[in-house]
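tool=predict chain=A
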Amino acid sequence: MIKFSDEHVWLSFEGEATNGMTATVGITPHAQDTLGDIVFVDLPAIGASFAQASVAGVVESVKAAADVHMPVDGEIIEVNEDLRADPSMANTDPQGAGWFFKIKLSNAAQVAALFDEAAYEAFRSQ
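tool=predict ok
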């Protein structure tokens, strides 16, 4: 299942969200298109915990820098070192190889308030 935040971040996990479940997080293709060519990513430290909507990372492009906001409360359990070494992966595959980090959900109830794909597309096109 994939969900989207109003900060243009996606969250992907298998099945229904539960506390302790792991999820992968990255920026949406829309965010990447808006930013342009991404040249640097600042990823959080493994073991760090973040509240929903707090800044967990930063992306820099040739146009601007933008914060990456946590879509839900969680603890960072893995970061994409390949993305750190080659930030252009976020340009070519933002919802695949260009993922940013993996989290352990601490408040799975927050997932219900995120957009599904259809709702995100409607939000994005406003």
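The radius of gyration is 13 Å. The CA atoms of residues 81 and 122 lie 33 Å apart.
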